[in-house]
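Quick bug: Ribose import permease protein RbsC output formatted oddly.
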Amino acid sequence: MTTAPKEGTHVTTTSSTAVQTGAMEVERPSLPKRIVSVVGVQNISLIIAIALVVAIIGIQNPLFFGVANLRVIGTAITIMGLLAVVQTIVIILGALDISVGSIAGLTSVTSAMIFTAAGTAAGVAGAIAIGVLCGLINGCIIVFGRVNPVIATLATLAAFMGAAQLISDGRAQGYTGADPFFVFLARGAIIGVPVLIWVLVIVAALAYVVLRFTSIGRNIYAVGGNNIASRLAGININRYVIGTYMITGAVAAIAGILITARTGSGQPVSGSEGLELQAITAAALGGAALKGGKGTIVGTLLAVILLGVLTNGMTLLGVNSFWQNVAQGALLVIAVVIQQLRSGERRIGIPG
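Here's what came back:
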């Protein structure tokens, strides 16, 4: 005897089939959502901010859009951009380097002094070697001295600045204004783009590739995100800390060489003072989390452009230069506050 299906059985089967069919048909996100997911909310915010600043300044002063002024902006942000790129890597690692400006000043002086004594190649190589040594000192203090990176690099900020002033007697040293290589760095161009900008593009591209496509980059993110889990996973954290600071020192030395090229002499302080704050501000504005594990080179470069456009625009509009420092400090505070709000941590009290 055949038993008739219970009432509602057919409906249940149909509903189950419909659910399965619906699960298989994944709704594709809209074009705006796909653009946001690829570009990133942080980067889109920076692009909008740049567009607004450009529009406001351009309306006030049409000279802002001149080719000559755009070249000025590009070359002006190069040195800050180099330091911001490596500062981003250090921050992703979960650390900080406040000494990058002093390393740039020290290597600027040494590049000019060694150049005067032994020629161009020796000056460049010597400056980079000293930058790497400074980074090694920073890394060893942090790793073997168990010193907080902020305290360690705050100490070397003063030490490296003092060393630059001691060996230079507090004055500009050497003269590179007649050397073809330094002149090419300062005023040369490749396919119409200043060499200074090419240097930034190359360093930023290398940093992007390493962070995005290599195991080294993935490990840097992992260490910054959770150093305990990274250690248990077999990552040699000490090696990454020391290596990252050595690379930071090398790039800071390149920035120092560019300072020498632009000014025609080695500068112990002028041209490098305050660069560490600018680098940290750009990295934070670009989305690098000061607690580590998060950040992008593209975001940092957009923040560098924003800072460069803002500084240039304020200069064109005749704003007192002291207000530029105020604006820069305010942007850093805003960037950090936004990070805290996004983190979901408590909003009142001393940060944990």
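Actually, after a second look the formatting is fine. The two ends are 73 Å apart (CA to CA). Closing.
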